Amino acid sequence: MKTFVPNHSLNRREFLTQMRNAGLGLAAGMTVLGNSFSANAGEGKNRPEVVAVYYPHWHKYDHGISWKGEGWTEWEGVKVAPPRFPGHAQPKKPVMGYLGESDPKCVDREINLAADHGIDVFLYCWYWYSGVKNMEEALEQGFLKAPSSKRMKFALMWANHDRKDQFCPEFGKPRTTWLPARHSPRDFERMIEYGIEHYFREPNYWRVNGKLFFSIYLAKSFIDQIGGPEKTRALFEKMDARLAKANLPPMHWSTMVSDVKTAAMAREAGFLSTSRYNINAAGKERPDGTEQYEDLMDAHREHWAKMTESPLVNIPVVTMGWDATPRCRADVPWPFPKKEYPYVPVVVGNTPEKYEQLLRDAAKYIEADPKKPFAVLLYALNEWTEGGYLFPEERTGNAYLEAIKRTFGKSTDR
Fold first, then answer.
1. N or C: at which end does the chain have fewer Cβ atoms within 10 angstroms?
2. Domains of the chain: which residue ranges?
3. pTM check: above 0.85
């Protein structure tokens, strides 16, 4: 068995070199040595929590019907997505079927499957637009009412971006904005009040060092619209005081960033940690409109190494794959004439074996980073229309979930 012993006093270049050199021993059976955990069997009190993005857009809801028509869900795009090139694995066929995740019986199956494979937290993409909510039924009617909900922790990632029609939009035309994202202290206070009433008191709401975890997708636009880092920090302190009045702990404010400069701004504004929603491109598109997963793996390692210089602890993200063609019109020729979401390159060559290697790299990053990240973020449980999914698909079954279980084991508290 080969081993990797982390050096805790490395600069970015040395850290990346260490990771690459250790890559020679990333086969199954490799063990991470140090103070935290074994990448062979991650069970133990120092095991990082395994957090998976949950995309709640697979049920019928009023706004979706208003925008796209009666009965519409994103499953419609999944079912008819055509292969764009030889070997293109479309359409995807979920083994559990086209579940409506506002149904607690459906979510119960997902919870048990995920918990049995070492996932600790569902990080729900959550949508709030000046009091207008979207897709909250998946969490409020599905997850929270599922019989086995207490087996899984949950937390919110406020997807504070404009709500646009990105679902088979006309190529080369401006996207329709359904709901613009506008931020103000008053609206943020209303949002936290809603969280107090509906989520934060739940015994399985995820806590980090005793604090309630809350992620904000776009840091810079939020900070800018609130009035800058100083005013944002003051707003966070005010919200923590409101939580205390409700007999709740303060918030662990987290955000999604892609660079150290934005992380530094986030720290000044009062954020305590960062991550990244996914890493879906390495900038190495080939003439056939694809990128190789090996290049995407390198992009992950480069990003993790870069973020060791951040003033905030960074939760490493591990991206299972990327293929947004189910959100594209079938009549747009391949390769796409130009890049405009969702008409972007497809990642190919991702396999459960390569995914497991990247998970083990993330485990090594966590062990080697002196700031000791407390979790790993997985993209994603069910982003079927973007090609990021961990729930079983006909071609690979449970293989991606089994890779998680082999790498991190299961939490000892359930």
1. N
2. 49-408
3. yes
